[in-house]
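Folded chain entry
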Amino acid sequence: MHTILLVDDEPNYLIVLSELLTEAGHEVFTAASGEEALALARSSDLDVVITDMQMPGMDGMALLEAIKEINSNLPVIIITAFAEVEKAVKAMQAGAFSYLAKPFANDELLVNIDKAAAHYNLVRENSRLRREMQARSGFSGMVGKNPKMLQVYEMIEKVAPTYASVLISGESGTGKELVAKAIHSASSRHDAPFIAVNCAALVDNLLESELFGHEKGAFTGAMNMRKGRFELAHGGTIFLDEVGEIPLSLQSKLLRVLQERSFERVGGSRTCEVDVRVISASNRDLREEVLAGRFREDLFYRLNVIHISLPALRERLDDLPPLVDAFIARVAASLGKSALSISVEAMRLLMKLPWEGNIRELENTIERAAILCDNETIQPEDVQPDSEEYQKDNRWGDDINLKDLVPENVFLNDVLYAVEEKMLKRALEDSGYVQARAAEQLGITKSLLQYKMKKYRIKKKG
């Protein structure tokens, strides 16, 4: 479905064309003058404008020029009488998408509309991608050969050609949007839009408008008709990041889109039909959210047709060196440090860190180190990760006598494991096995405590 503005001073002609386009499944606005059309062009999210050349007051040429000042990419199709072909050529030179000479066949008009809307969609998508490339900080490729990542790649290859909805789970910073983009790029929809929505970043009423669009006057501040992300993603893929944050009041409308591929804009009554593949992601356990009554069970099963679980970085540390190399190559290009590298000592330090923020934290750490390093080699002192655990002052250990504490011929890993296990057990016992208190006592996050409890097979009490 395309949103089309028809402009003609002949009422009967507007009625005939409007019925034709409506029957073809399009949303149609009509205007009897250039001035009226210009007001609609300013207040509505249009895909194509079709205007007659000869009109009193503002004619088709003047309307074309005015529309191009508002939106230079919006396609305008000119309708002319046979004797006005010379004017139509001038209109093409002024930026019209195409022209049709009266009389024309209905199929000819419909084909021109489809071509114009497809061209406009491609221009908008290219513009969005350019903005994304300029603004994004995330690394665009997927790096790693860990067995868990190889399983992820295999799942992407299997699910990409299908229409199935995909739910991606994993901790924050593990690269869930990269997986969603990889699925889209490997699918038959790769030439259509990929639209991402961070569901946690918007309040409830704004999220509904962002997803489904709104009509003019739907709420205070809705000065124009605006299409939502589902309409913009028509033919392509929509990625709902942090889908667990969508309020229950809005989940039923999302379920309807998944079931019926249709919805109404906020404040509107017209049903919009869309062909969209839905990929969602969450760092929450949505099964637990269902049990807690915060997430609809039927919606969960609609989203979770295919499930892809991303491992935390600490579970694939063998991938850390190639990830570091990839981030160094990217940041070196942006900083103009062509010979940027990392020392063996700095790499060893990176391998020891907890990486609570996963790949995103690693990327930030490499970028920060590249900026701080005095020459073109990153040293241990340049490494300043975000993890709270690393930020603690550990100078108390200077007074420890290792000969009294550690027997000879004991390996470092054995000492580290023994001390860490005992500290975990002591903190849990002191806190009565209240994990939040134990984590606070140890100076780590609750999620890291839970990971370490699994590592040492420390069972929950009570």
Remarks:
- The CA atoms of residues 332 and 338 lie 6 Å apart.
- Residues 106-135 form the longest helix (30 residues).
